[in-house]
Amino acid sequence: MKNEPLQVAVIGGGAAGFFAAISAKTHHPDAKVTIYEKSDKLLSKVRISGGGRCNVTHHCFDIRELVTNYPRGERPLKKAFGIFSPTDTIEWFKKRGVELKTESDGRMFPVTDDSSTIINCLMSETRKLGIAIKTKSNIKKLRKTEHGYELGLHRGGRVEADRVIVATGGSPRSSGFDWLRKLDHDIEEPVPSLFTFNMPDEPIRELMGVVADPVSVKIMGSKLQNSGPLLITHWGMSGPAILKLSAFGARELSDKDYRFTVLVNWAGERTEQEVRGILKTVVEGHGMKKTTNVNPFQLPGRLWNFLIDKLEVGDDMIWQNMGKKNINRLVHLITNDEYQVQGKTTFKEEFVTCGGVSLHDVDMKTMQSRKSPNLYFAGEVLDIDGVTGGFNFQAAWTTGYIAGLLA
Ligand SMILES: Cc1cc2nc3c(=O)[nH]c(=O)nc-3n(C[C@H](O)[C@H](O)[C@H](O)COP(=O)(O)OP(=O)(O)OC[C@H]3O[C@@H](n4cnc5c(N)ncnc54)[C@H](O)[C@@H]3O)c2cc1C
Fold this sequence. Notes:
By secondary structure, the protein is an alpha+beta fold. The chain has 2 domains: 7-191 and 349-404, FAD/NAD(P)-binding domain; 195-346, no CATH class. The protein has helices spanning 15-27, 44-52, 63-66, 74-83, 86-95, 115-129, 178-181, 240-248, 250-255, 272-286, 301-311, 323-335, 391-404, and strands at 7-11, 32-36, 57-58, 100-102, 107-110, 132-134, 139-144, 149-153, 158-161, 163-166, 187-193, 195-198, 211-219, 225-232, 236-238, 259-265, 337-342, 344-346, 352-357, 362-363, 368-369, 375-377. The strands form 6 sheets. It has a 7-stranded antiparallel beta sheet with strand order 17-16-13-14-15-12-18. The protein has a 5-stranded parallel beta sheet with strand order 6-2-1-10-22, covered by helices on one side. A hairpin with a 4-residue loop joins strand 4 and strand 5 (107-110). The radius of gyration is 25 Å and the shape is elongated. Residues 11-17, 36-39, 44-45, 48-50, 54-55, 138-139, 167-169, 349-352, 379-380, 390-393, 396 line the site of flavin-adenine dinucleotide (FAD). Flavin-adenine dinucleotide (FAD) binds at residues 11-17, 36-39, 44-45, 48-50, 54-55, 138-139, 167-169, 349-352, 379-380, 390-393, 396.
């Protein structure tokens, strides 16, 4: 009697689902691999990712350093990156004719600067391998059977599979995970990550478009802090320093209902004492010059003028007339400038949900569920998320690849 082929169902036609399906078919050529996608579009986030360029991964090859970019999943990912790392991603795409290039901040894109290069590569690979793709197939139920799983489709109908890989992405609503809760998985509550700060009452918004780099930012009354470039926007503040803060503080800031005070150190990592020392040399060396005409921290001119304006010492104030009191006020303003945040805006370039299937319930060496055998997870459905820079796709490629090993 001929053996029936292993039936592998991959739920979700995004980056993680495609990578998992390709890995499954490559490692188990005799298996019948099918991707079920609820919408009529495949790889839709890949298409819009990185402003249409797709930031595929990050130029970071030290696993210990790499994992520090994941506010959720840092430690568990060490094992997974040991199996499939950014080096493997670069090689994987290269072998299939897709060259990646690195930008000065470490982000890696296809040399074409076009996300369709990545989509075409993944699509052609699935075609070549004979992976079946079923769109408009919303899987609503997953039931354990004697030999595997029964998948229940939204519009009725059932499918049987021996192994199932869940790659359904993040869900903004907790109820989106109910079908996985039914299989006894713990779900970390979803909240948004990677957002910008709204400051409706702050006049600094008039400086929209100004970038200060590097600055340090802290959230008052918490341990959250970060540094890097800060972009002033029409709504408030954005840029890598703010986005990283939003990712590492995703839960804490949600608990505060996105109302909190940000403290900005415009002099980067410099301490109050160092700033005071620099201002002392300015007073000594440029005493007769106007405060607006000497910009000791090389801040964008409009920003420096804005800060001097905030001191209310008058447009004509010269350095030697500042006096101890005003210098103290300026030191405080430069190193601890306070802004009130009232709400958030989703970052348009790249946003993710923090939360998802608890990593306690998943073996990170195989991506197999610890609660339900022969069930695997990949991508953002897991409680894994990274900061901006290609880290989220890297997690999708890595977990997808490992899940597809069906180990
Ligand atoms: C605008 C934007 C830009 C981004 N840019 C970048 C970037 O440049 N670099 C980077 O690293 N990250 C980026 N990200 C994050 C990255 O896109 C995600 O982390 C990544 O797409 C997650 O992949 P995934 O396959 O796990 O989930 P998704 O891409 O969300 O795919 C999940 C798929 O599953 C389907 N699905 C869900 N439920 C079901 C169901 N029940 N049955 C069947 N199908 C289902 C969905 O329709 C979807 O197609 C960006 C995100 C956004 C929103």
